[in-house]
Amino acid sequence: MEAGSVSPTASKAVANDKALDSLIAADKTAALKLAPVSRETEERLDRYIALLREWQAKTNLVAPSTLPQLWTRHIADSLQLVDLAPAAKRWADLGSGGGFPGIVLACAMAGTPGASVHLVERIAKKAAFLREAIRVTTSPGVVHLAEIGDNVDRITGPVDCVTARALAPLHQLIGFAEPLMRQGAKALFLKGQDVEAELTEAAKYWNIRPQLHQSRTGDGWIVELNAAERRG
User: What confidence category does residue 18 fall into, taking pLDDT thresholds of 50, 70 and 90?
Assistant: First the structure.
């Protein structure tokens, strides 16, 4: 190969990156129609997505198959929680992983006086990413490297809303969140199509009065709980 020439493999990688850029840009337009945000929030989310794509090459933050739908499947899906708890300023996100919904909520809350988002993550690499995302987006978040069940000991001050996405079955999520709910927090759990089966299972362990909200971004559901009492 001549000096300065580009290998076929490198050329293909560049072409793939450009194709992905185009898909993500189109997806962003669709997502912001579903969940409009301010220009400042959009800029923060842009920085977050750029960072996520950079880290995704070395740390699996989202399923690779979902990269073309980052904005609709992950960003808009997270943003819709804000409308379900419009007065909430202090959030706790359990098992934050790649930052959904925690970092997205922090970006959305950045202009709100007194806002804070606690992000609880047990995997050190992901916690490091979350800290960098908070720094890059200048958002009001605090990252706790901890087992999910230890979150109550690490979160100081009141919490208005506790969230989780793709973390555990509903009955386990309620167990994690119940101490915060006992102190007045609302729970909003993002769930898939099998939500009815999860609610049936959760009712074996908990007295709950769930309210279901259909997701704007697909076939999923959001389970809203204001209280939970353990059976037996």
Answer: confident
Closest by Cα among 103, 100, 185 to 143: 103
Q: Are 45 and 75 in contact (CB under 8 A)?
A: yes
N-to-C CA span, the chain: 73
Which of these, 115, 214, 120, 213, lies nearest to 173 by C-alpha position?
120
Gyration radius of the chain's alpha carbons: 19
Q: Using the 8-state DSSP alphabet, how is residue 167 labeled?
A: S
Beta bridge pairs of residue 190: 165, 222
pLDDT one-digit tens code per residue, 170-224: 999 999 999 999 999 999 999 999 999 999 999 999 999 999 999 998 889 999 9
The first and second tokens of residue 153, run together, are 């000991």
Cα-based angle 73, 75, 80 (whole degrees, multiple of 5): 95
Whether the bond into 169 is cis, omega within 30 of 0? no
Query: How many other C-beta atoms are found inside a 10 Å radius of the C-beta of residue 32?
Result: 18
Determine the Cα–Cα distance for residues 35 and 30; give it in Å rounded to an integer.
9
Token pair 């990252």 is at which residue? 143
Convert the pLDDT of each residue in 112-130 to its tens digit.
999 999 999 999 999 999 9
CA dihedral over 171, 100, 126, 94, signed as positive or negative: negative
Tokens for 55, please give them: 């880290």
